[in-house]
Structures are given as structure tokens and as C-alpha cells.
Design brief:
The protein has 213 residues and is an alpha/beta fold. It has a single domain, classed as TIM Barrel, CATH 3.20.20. The protein contains eight helices and nine strands. Strands 1-2-4-5-6-7-8-9 form an eight-stranded parallel β-barrel. Strand 2 and strand 3 form a beta hairpin. Helix 2 packs parallel to helix 3 and helix 5 packs parallel to helix 6. The radius of gyration is 16 Å and the shape is globular.
Length: 213
């Protein structure tokens, strides 16, 4: 069954602690987008905020760095309570070193691929990847539709992982809707990043639907 890395960006940002408690029973982890205003034109979440939220749930915090210089953010977010750190592949010239830095901190490490980026770019990195996040919308845009190429990319990633005996998780992020989730499930995704699908619906009913796929 597809698991949920629930995006806190879609929660009521004025009541994050209560929102976490409300959807916690229907989530496997929380996905936290971090934006520095440079890589994308957004400002989202920061280490002290994550540290303040950490006592409100035992679920893992998955930090998605939409930043320049991702390596400088590893230590602050590890100290704040992150359990996994994902960064944008095109945000650094040294992705393997960044992945190793995350893993040396004892955390899960991953990269996110933009719509136009091929899985071929991961060829030297697979051995370091705990998670691959396949982004289905323009980076930093909330509420957009999922690009039609995403299920095929998920399917290709699943074939690579299976053929090489890897344990890398495949996560789909962006455009997670009732009409797209079955396609991602059929393609072989492990995780989806629901935002409005979790916070604007009855989360219990949504998970029952997810289990029926």
C-alpha cells in the first residue's frame, strides 16, 4: 500500500501542532519543504521551527531542501530533529558528497528530480540513495497538476531498483490528487506526498480509499 509523507506546507500554518496531531494517525512521516528564497521564490520552514514541532509527534520528519548550498543546511536540520534530508539534484555540483554527509549524520538521504531531469543523472548515486523524490510540478508551486511524465518515470525507477536489488524508496511529490494517485500506485511508488488530499479531506476516509487501491 502507498504510504504518506504528509506535506506540512498544506496544513493550517497558524495551527501546525494541532494539524500534526489531526493527521498523524493517517501518515507514516511528515514532509517539510524548506525554501530559502533563492533556489525558489518562497520562504518556507526553518530549523528552529522544526525543533519546536519535534515534540508534537514521533513520526519521522523528512526535510526537503529547496535551497542553494544544501550541505550547509544538513547540520542545522539534523540538530533540529530531521530524520531524512532530501535535496534538489541540480542545487549542488557535489551530490555524492552531500548524500554521504547526510548519511554520516545517521539520517536517510535522498535527492529530488525535476520534471525535465532524467533518471540517468542518478547513475553515479544509486548506492548512496535511501529515497528518490520524483517531482511532478514546477518546483515551489503548490496546487498545480501533475506532469503526465511522472508515472513513467516512477515505473522506470522501480525497474532500476528491482533489477539492482536496491532498497531505495520512490516518492512522488506534486500534483497528488484522487485521479493521479492510482497511476502512481500502479507505477510502483512507495510514498506519496499528500497536501490538500490529506488536510482538506477527511484523513481517515482518504486512507481507507488509499488502502483500497
Amino acid at each position: 500500500m502507498l504510504k504518506c509523507s504528509t506535506s506540512l506546507w498544506s496544513a493550517d500554518l497558524a495551527n501546525l501542532a494541532a494539524e500534526i496531531k489531526r493527521v498523524e494517525p493517517y501518515s507514516e512521516r511528515f514532509h517539510i519543504d524548506v525554501a530559502d528564497g533563492h533556489y525558489v521564490r518562497n520562504l518556507l520552514f526553518f530549523p528552529d521551527q522544526i525543533k519546536a514541532l519535534r515534540p508534537h509527534t514521533r513520526l519521522p520528519f523528512e526535510v526537503h531542501l529547496m535551497t542553494t548550498e544544501p550541505r550547509v543546511w544538513i547540520e542545522p536540520f539534523v540538530e533540529a530533529g530531521a530524520d531524512a534530508i532530501i535535496f534538489c539534484l541540480d542545487s549542488t555540483n557535489e551530490p555524492s558528497q552531500t548524500l554521504q554527509s547526510i548519511r554520516s549524520s545517521g539520517k536517510q538521504a535522498g535527492v529530488s528530480l525535476l520534471i525535465h531531469e532524467s533518471l540517468d543523472l542518478l547513475e553515479p548515486l544509486w548506492e548512496f540513495l535511501d529515497i528518490i523524490t520524483i517531482v511532478g510540478t514546477a518546483m515551489g508551486i503548490k496546487g498545480a497538476s501533475m506532469d503526465a511524465s511522472v508515472p513513467g518515470k516512477v515505473r522506470q525507477a522501480r525497474q532500476i531498483i528491482r533489477s539492482r536489488g536496491l532498497k531505495t524508496l520512490i516518492e512522488a511529490d506534486g500534483g497528488i490528487r484522487r485521479e493521479t494517485v492510482p497511476l502512481l500506485h500502479a507505477a510502483g511508488a512507495d510514498l506519496i506526498v499528500p497536501g490538500s488530499l490529506m488536510f482538506r479531506e477527511d484523513p481517515k476516509a482518504m486512507r481507507q480509499w488509499l488502502a483500497s487501491l
